[in-house]
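Hi D.,

Good news: the full-assembly prediction came through. Inputs first.
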Amino acid sequence: MRRVAAALLSLAAFLVAWKLITLLGGYPEFILPAPEVVAERAVRAIASGVLWEHAGVTLLEIVLGFALGAGAAVLTGIALGKSVLVERVLSPYIVAAQAVPILALAPLLDIWFGGGLLARVVICALIVFFPIAIATMVGIRSADPLLDEMLRSLGAGPAQRTRLLEIPSALPVIFGGLRVGVTLAVIGAVVAEWAGASTGLGVLINIANQGLFDTPLMFVALAALAVIGLAFYGLVVAVERRLVSR
Amino acid sequence: MDGTTGGAGLDARLDGVGVHFGEPDAGLQAIDGLTLDIPAGSFTVIIGPNGCGKSTLLRLLAGLLAPSTGSVTVGGREPRAGDGRVALAFQQPRLVPWRTTLANVALPLELDGVPPMERHDRAVVALERVGLAGAAGLRPRELSGGMAQRAALARALITDPPVLLLDEPFSALDALTRETFDAELQRLWMEQPRTVVLVTHSVVEAVALADRVVVMTPRPGRVARVVEVDLDRPRPPELLGHPRAAELAAEVRAGLASGRALELRPWAEGEGAA
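Then the structure:
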């Protein structure tokens, strides 16, 4: 109850500050629309179905991109954490791929993967991959060597030790990576849409901003992205609370 | 397990064992030329100064470590971790923090693929045997040091191993608790005899528990002396005031001192001495 009240209070304060800035600054609507203008535009966008059309596509990209990226990252992170050799061989490529701006790569990836949903999912997955893979590697290595020896003395093999010790030890750290990754998934979806798509919230932002000069609609799309990001983040935290009991 | 003995444990042998860590020319010679016979069903206590390779010796017997030279056998075979013949309890309880006490104790059965119901029932019995029936649902962080060590002992005993290895399991406990533990360990062993090898720093503990005390030299570890303890069992704490007990303790201390004398000699001369 208190958590909800705090969240509502903070939202109210944010809206009041926003309104005050527009009042005091007297900005034209295409620079900074007032909150009620954006709200009214949102109602229209929802009523006409425009928002759902774009948001649905972006949601799908985020869910698939995050699932693919996080799944691959956890598996890679386990391999990196368990084997120094694997880390030596793979990590230069992983770090280099992370250092290359995804914005520059996205148009190329879009062509490679056929320009459809698959291409956007791959771009999203790539951006999600790095923090989760690194977090998993660090987490796997954080397993207590004394417990590892105890398990070995009981005859536990590498797979059993990973399941019974390393993954549970790594979970808090992995979830740290997942929290970062899930917000990056939202960015990844938008970047992927900018590289070539006809629907999605990223596309809607471009249309509103550069095509229609409809700044309130752009704010609606941004707000929708923020809400999606918050919702997925909350979901990750909720799963974390269930799985990590410490 | 197999027909090597009549059910009261397995014998263990170390023959000319050397353990070297690190590079062949550098590194550390932890154990050198160690030969030791541990009879089936005996209670053997290993005592020696820090770093003399006592824990290494237990790791050899547990199959966690292979000797660099010489041979180690348990019941006539090379030990292999998880073969069900040997259980090792460590100096620290080493309980898995996110598991309940019961689930920790049942862990060896889980690794052996025992079905959940049987696992549960056997873990309950194992906890009762060490006086921890009430702690089944608690997490390790909710246990006192003594309770955690009892749970670790229950975990080691749950598979009913022919050989039980104990690496200073009570060293972190206060003296009074430790005395109680020693008495209980003796009771458990008398109820259900098996081969026990206990590592300790305490001369009193050694005399209180052992059939034979094996005194080791400083690194590189080898056997300095074996003291047969011919006191009747059970041995209550008062018995340790008995003249014979004092005599035996003095003998163990003398063994430790002679080991130290050996250490003072140049390495070249010490080579080959036993």
